[in-house]
Design a protein that fits this description.
By secondary structure, the protein is of the alpha+beta class. It is about 40% helix and about 15% strand. The chain has a 4-stranded mixed β-sheet with strand order 2-1-3-4, with helices on both faces. A hairpin with a 2-residue loop joins strand 3 and strand 4. The protein is globular, with a radius of gyration of 14 Å. It starts with a strand and ends with a helix.
Length: about 110
């Protein structure tokens, strides 16, 4: 079964769920804003996405701009920021077994599922 890290206030995230529903895919919604991922879970997710921590950050978010932008941060510090401020994480993220994709592009998502 697919897992979707979902933000209900995000249009791209809602579109992803609608797409998966229309494609008759079973999926579990993970409300990562209410239940933030641990630092270990973020590291595991990064491996599944094949991304470095900065690539997972929404760098236009106010929190990022105010507290982190233009600072020299280690990967561990970025992961800690994602844990403390889950709103900084790109979304939606669709997880399938040991792989994951940021599901903003529905064409790429279709190939992934």
């Amino acid at each position: 079964m697919l897992q979707v890290l979902h933000n209900p206030r995000c249009g791209k995230s809602r579109n992803c769920l609608a797409f998966l529903t229309e494609a008759n895919q079973d999926f579990e919604i993970i409300s990562y804003l209410l239940n933030p991922l641990s630092e270990a879970e973020i590291k595991e997710l990064l491996q599944k996405l094949d991304l470095n921590p900065l690539e997972l950050v929404r760098q236009k978010e106010t929190i990022w701009i105010e507290y982190y932008k233009n600072k020299s941060l280690t990967d561990s510090e970025i992961i800690k920021a994602l844990n403390e401020h889950p709103i900084l994480m790109e979304r939606p993220i669709v997880i399938k077994n040991n792989k994951a994709i940021i599901g903003r592009d529905l064409e790429k998502l279709q190939k992934f599922i």
